[in-house]
Write a structure and sequence with these properties.
This protein folds into two domains: 268 residues, Rossmann fold; 91 residues, formyl-coa transferase, domain 3 (2-Layer Sandwich). Helices cover 36% and strands 13% of the residues. The protein has 18 helices and eleven strands. The strands form three sheets. It has a six-stranded parallel sheet, sandwiched between helices. It is elongated and about 85 Å long. The N and C termini lie far apart (60 Å). Bound molecules: coenzyme A. Coenzyme A binds next to α1, α4 and β5.
Length: 425
């Protein structure tokens, strides 16, 4: 079976998490991803959060599957020649350098476009044009500046960052879509273009419903927020809403059997209006089906704490999985809080290829998250990440067509290898 992006060659200048997330997806769709790394050093994440000494970290391996690695010093004159040849041979250049790095390297957009007018140049930066455009940005900075942190957490607590990497991986996803759109447009125009995504913009896009609420706030209190029912006035900005549901259907995280000792013995429970009567029956409050204080959603809004406390009395008598089984039978929306341990052991996620076991020559077997985007005619096979510079000579010969003599010359220039240490006399 062929792959969706077969024949597309990516010059991958990405590092850390945001950019590598994007190029890994492209590789899973069948693109040939050539990761360019600094000789001797490589992507900084190879050495970060290492669980085994001198072995590529899980941080690196889990973000760089299905890629090839070439080491290249792009500040070395011979290295610039190789980079020029790569630009002419690839379809897309993806980078998430700090602002201005590509220009300082001597490869601004204008030069790349002149070298290869078909090339798409895709970039992630922390911020778009404006006062912060020159700033370096990491995950949590993006979450804080994109509206996520100010709206996450509890009203009387600090702003919170989330465990899901919406700044890095979220922006990588956005960039991937931009690249695929630009590739499609190129089939009609024959021209490359620039694709840029700012992490702040990506996070704000994911926090879109909170900008919705910001504007609703001008027309009165946000009635589905718990604080409305508690009689606490709203300020002029969208408050943190705890575990309130972001939609119009009130929801909360509730304790289940075992919560005293298990930090994940909880269930998300949504009091969706169409199944309200079934909820009343399940929790043993049939009278609430007709009682004017509970029967209709507007009446319930001021009583959500009382209602969820009553539902929790019921959920605490069940494990989260028992509760899920019972509630699902009645189409009552709910979800257990699943720990990473539970997800790692989940057999259906293994069967669907969302959690995969990968073998690595240095570290042995480890678990990773496979491609969450399933294409029926382009299945993704997860291949281990490359060792640093594993494919350097292969790429010089096969992709760029360099002869043995040329490859030896490039090696001699020092463009591919770390500087040799000269032993002290
Ligand atoms: N050969 C030679 N030099 C190389 C090279 C190579 N193959 N690859 C990178 N370099 C150099 C760059 O030219 C740059 O040198 P310069 O500053 O002298 O121009 C230098 O390495 C540092 O690059 P930079 O991207 O700024 O790395 P950093 O470690 O200082 O900053 C980030 C890291 C992530 C903060 C920064 O890259 C950034 O803000 N990226 C955009 C936002 C982003 O993606 N953030 C999330 C990352 S998960």
């Amino acid at each position: 079976m062929t792959k969706a992006l077969k024949g597309v060659r990516i010059l991958d200048f990405t590092h850390v998490q945001s950019g590598p997330t994007c190029t890994q997806l492209l590789a899973w769709f069948g693109a040939d991803v050539i990761k360019v790394e600094r000789p001797g050093v490589g992507d900084i994440t190879r050495g970060q959060l290492q669980d085994k000494p001198n072995v590529d970290s899980l941080y690196f391996t889990m973000l760089n599957h299905n890629k090839r690695s070439i080491t290249l010093d792009t500040k070395n004159p011979k290295g610039k020649e190789v980079l020029t040849a790569l630009i002419k041979s690839c379809d897309v250049l993806v980078e998430n350098f700090g602002p201005g790095v590509l220009d300082r390297m001597g490869f601004p957009w204008e030069k790349i476009h002149a070298l290869n007018p078909k090339m798409i140049v895709a970039s992630i930066k922390g911020f778009g044009p404006g006062p912060y455009e020159d700033c370096k940005v990491y995950e949590n900075v993006a979450q804080c500046t994109g509206g996520s942190a100010s709206t996450t957490g509890f009203r009387d607590g600090l702003p919170l960052v989330t465990g899901a990497q919406i700044g890095d991986s979220g922006t990588g996803l956005h960039l991937g879509l931009g690249i695929v759109a630009a590739l499609y447009q190129r089939t009609m125009t024959g021209q490359g273009q620039r694709v840029t995504v700012a992490m702040q913009d990506g996070v704000l896009n994911l926090a879109r419903v909170k900008l919705r609420d910001q504007q609703r706030l001008a027309h009165g209190p946000l009635k589905e927020y718990s604080q409305f029912g508690e009689g606490i006035p709203f300020g002029d900005a969208v408050p943190r809403a705890g575990n309130d549901s972001g939609g119009g259907q009130p929801g909360r995280i509730l304790k289940c059997k075992g919560w005293e000792t298990d930090p994940n013995a909880y269930l998300y429970f949504i009091t969706q209006a169409p199944v309200w009567e079934k909820i009343c029956d399940v929790i043993g409050e049939p009278g609430w089906k007709t009682h004017p204080d509970y029967a209709k959603p507007p009446a319930r809004l001021t009583r959500l704490n009382e209602i969820f406390a009553r539902i929790e009395q019921w959920t605490m008598t069940k494990t989260k999985f028992e509760a899920m089984d019972i509630l699902n039978k009645d189409d009552i929306p709910c979800g257990p809080i699943l720990s990473m341990k539970e997800l790692a052991e989940d057999q259906s996620l293994r069967a669907s290829g969302t959690v995969v076991e990968v073998d690595h020559p240095q570290r042995g077997k480890y678990l990773s998250v496979g491609n969450p985007i399933k294409l029926s005619d382009s299945p993704s096979e997860v291949l281990r990440s490359p060792l640093l510079g594993e494919h350097t000579d292969e790429i010089l010969r096969q992709v760029l067509g360099f002869s043995d003599h040329q490859v030896a010359e490039i090696h001699d220039s020092g463009a591919l290898d770390p500087p040799r240490k000269v032993a002290a006399e």
